[in-house]
């Protein structure tokens, strides 16, 4: 079982959102987005690396044509933001005049998306919206308002379903809150 593997390595994982719950939220989000953009096509911007799993599941449920592009951003070291958002890889597509939907796994302080939205807005999209699987709204340091939210959540550092702790645990099927156990070995 995926929890046990990490317990043996000194990390206690508490189940927060099961894959069934995630699937249900994705179905709801896909229906809402498909209805809002009926008759149009979407340019989906996937924020790597974390949103990879979410994007793969969501786009296959959409009922509108999509084009996919990717941007790689990073700002976390361990469980804390460094406060500096690095753009490691920019988009390939020209977004001017397009309906752009940014897909994120999680919005926390909002620093990552503020940086990205400022950059994308300057490029003249027809519309620019955010869809996030998880929204930790209470922790915001910067003003970011996702239009589509899967799960509103309060706190704790989450891992699994794309969410990492120093590049580990992304592959877990469910989403867990992680705590390092006293005396645990990495
Ligand atoms: O709202 P914020 O406090 O800025 O946090 C949200 C960001 O943190 C994570 O990315 P991370 O920098 O860990 O990179 P990753 O996607 O490669 O995991 C997550 O995927 C979001 O992009
Ligand atoms: N893995 C992970 N990355 C984050 N980035 C911002 N908040 C989180 C979180 O709770 N988990």
From TrEMBL:
Gene3D superfamilies cross-referenced by the UniProt entry: 3.40.50.2020
Catalytic activity: GMP + diphosphate = guanine + 5-phospho-alpha-D-ribose 1-diphosphate; IMP + diphosphate = hypoxanthine + 5-phospho-alpha-D-ribose 1-diphosphate
Domain spans labelled Phosphoribosyltransferase: 21-164
UniProt entry keywords in alphabetical sequence: Cytoplasm, Glycosyltransferase, Magnesium, Metal-binding, Nucleotide-binding, Purine salvage, Transferase
E.C. code: 2.4.2.8
Biological process annotations from GO: GMP salvage; guanine salvage; hypoxanthine metabolic process; IMP salvage; purine ribonucleoside salvage
Compartments in which it is found: Cytoplasm
CDD domains: PRTases_typeI
Cofactors, names only: Mg(2+)
Pathway linked to the protein: Purine metabolism; IMP biosynthesis via salvage pathway; IMP from hypoxanthine: step 1/1
Assigned GO CC terms: cytosol
Major subcellular site: cytoplasm
InterPro entries the UniProt entry points to: HGPRT, Hxn_phspho_trans, PRTase-like, PRTase_dom
Protein name: Hypoxanthine phosphoribosyltransferase
Pfam families registered for this protein in UniProt: Pribosyltran
Single GO term (MF): magnesium ion binding
Similarity annotation: Belongs to the purine/pyrimidine phosphoribosyltransferase family.
